Amino acid sequence: MGGKMNPPLLHVENVSHAYKVNGKHVPVLNNISFTLNAGEIIGIAGESGAGKSTLLRIAAGLEQPQSGVVKFFGEPIPFHKPRSLRQYYRRIGMVFQHPQDAFNPRWPLYRSIAEPLRVQKRRPMHVQQRVMELSAQVGLSRDLLRHYPHQLSGGQLQRAAIARALIANPEILFLDEPTAALDVSIQAQILNLLKQLHQQFQFGMVFVSHDLPVLRFIAHRLIVMKQGHIVEQGSTEAIIHQPVSPYTRQLIKSVLD
Hints:
The protein has a 6-stranded mixed β-sheet with strand order 6-7-8-3-9-10, sandwiched between helices. 37% of the residues lie in helices and 25% in strands. It is an alpha/beta fold. The longest helix is centred in the last third of the chain and has 18 residues, at 184-201. It folds into 2 domains: 10-91 and 171-254, Rossmann fold; 105-169. The N and C termini lie far apart (50 Å).
């Protein structure tokens, strides 16, 4: 007899959300559903204002949707229970567009990268070993760990942000335009690094970007958004080569032709 199937890593189900602007409710997400399986990389594409970052924040438990549910291993994320929500945060990592926002300017890099483990009250020896190990894997020298955020380049800071996000072995890594603020040559280095780390650790990834070539390089599956709706989702190569939606065709034509 077949065993019971494991629930997906992440399941976003019928999520809708709106913001209040000048007293009016402005919809930003409309009935969004998608599934992330273990070890999978999903790219979320679309122009500015499509709702990509709001969707990422909701999936990461940083914002509660007005309707719908987000499930982690089949269990709804407890937005109304701060203690349980913190348990979810311990199992995910986040990387943002502007890495300097993730770091305390008064702390050397070592302390910032180590902080998630210190919060979990891990043994100092374990913390030190893990920081050194992961810093080497992301290409940061021991010397740089003594530096402060303002002393590092954008690429070095983003490497540090990735190390910090992965320090506690998350099951999902959420990334919001992580290469958008970097030079093209540095972008390629960071994307190759993320691919390498994913192959090594096999965490799930949700990667938001307005840049289709970036998503084509990194993502197994693609979700294309327009004005708070999903217009298309499927395997990245199928969507790039045989888009169904006229909006997706236009998006691809504008950047890949």
